[in-house]
Amino acid sequence: MNIKRQVLFGGYRLAKTVGFLRLRNRALNYANILCFHRVNNNEPHPDPLTVRVDVFDRLMQIVRREYHPISLQSLIERVKKGEPFEPNTVAITFDDGYKDNFLNAAPILKKYALPATFFVTSGYIDTERVFPWDEETPVKHPLMTWDEVRELARMGFEIGGHTVNHIDLGTASIETAREEVAGCKEKIEKEVGQRINAFAFPFGRADAIRDDVLDIVRAAGFDCCCSDYGGKVTTGSDRYNLERVSMYPTITEMLMELDNFMTYYKGTMKINFLTSKTALPQVSVGMMPREP
Ligand SMILES: [Zn+2]
């Protein structure tokens, strides 16, 4: 571990031990939405899209014990009403529709009675299709079947939309964007037999999110939209751009993000010493690439 990271980890432990973070988080009124992709032990780690099963289990145990986990829908209700969040509020989401979400993540979430939302790519579910970014990976990444998605819904988890074909909505034509957004909602609702409310942008980068496409998301009847370039949700957040935090190489770093000690946002890592408004020197701590 290099010296910069040692100082970072030491500073975090100190701030946590003396209760500074607990006090500050009461005032900050932030909620964190976690964004996961895969949970398995199959591939070489670290992998930017994968969390190991034991790491996921440990993190969920900590979230249950030390944080305030709520469903994405409850979080949206708070944003709509302008109600403040409980300190340490966390919501849990998954993107893309990988089979290990059903096999590995769901039983752990159930064990700790944690709510979660699974954003699925409707045109990939129950097919042998492989996402372009998975074509060259050493192991295969199967996707869920509709039976598995239905079972998640039956278990009480929320299913959300993530387009039909995981296209980049930042560059798509308006007609294609409409087909992808409305098409996935229609298909998921038909298969699952429930109304779906939540949408997550594929490649949730800031430049993949266009205002005209957001109008389509609203018109299709989605109630909210998640991005994925980092950031916190506050009472004043736009529910059509709910910022999410991704996973980090270690549990300690994930907890630094959940404790609002540091924040990854649009490609840079910032440490928040005082309040959200305080601009501080940006510290690079070797963040892994995020997407899709
Ligand atoms: Zn995705």
Number of strands: 11
CATH topology description: TIM Barrel
Number of discrete helical segments:
9
Radius of gyration: 18 Å
Low-confidence stretches: 276-281
Going by CATH, what is the homologous superfamily? Glycoside hydrolase/deacetylase
List the domain count as a whole number.
1
Q: What spatial form do the alpha-carbon principal axes imply? A: globular
Name the structural class. Answer: alpha/beta
Calculate the terminal CA-CA distance, rounded to whole Å.
28 Å
Helix content: 25-40%
Strand content: 5-15%
Biggest sheet details: 5 strands, parallel
Averaged pLDDT = 90
Q: What small molecules does the structure contain?
A: zinc ion
Reading the helices and strands in chain order gives: HHEEEHEHEHEHEHEHEHEE
CATH class wording: Alpha Beta
User: Which architecture would the CATH scheme give at its second level?
Assistant: Alpha-Beta Barrel
Which key terms come to mind for this protein?
globular, alpha/beta, 292 residues, binds zinc ion, TIM Barrel, two-stranded parallel sheet
What does this structure look like?
This protein is an alpha/beta fold and 292 residues long. It has a single domain (3-271), classed as Alpha-Beta Barrel (TIM Barrel). 36% of the residues lie in helices and 14% in strands. The strands form 4 sheets. Strands 1, 4, 5, 6 and 7 form a 5-stranded parallel β-sheet that branches. Strands 2-3 form a two-stranded parallel ribbon. Helix 5 links the parallel strand 5 (89-96) and strand 6 (117-120). Helix 3 (53-66) runs parallel beside helix 5 (99-111) and helix 7 runs parallel beside helix 8 (211-219). The longest helix is centred in the middle third of the chain and has 19 residues, at 174-192. It is globular and about 50 Å long. Mean pLDDT is 90; it is low at 276-281. Bound molecules: zinc ion. Residues 95-96, 162, 166, 202, 292 line the site of zinc ion (ZN).
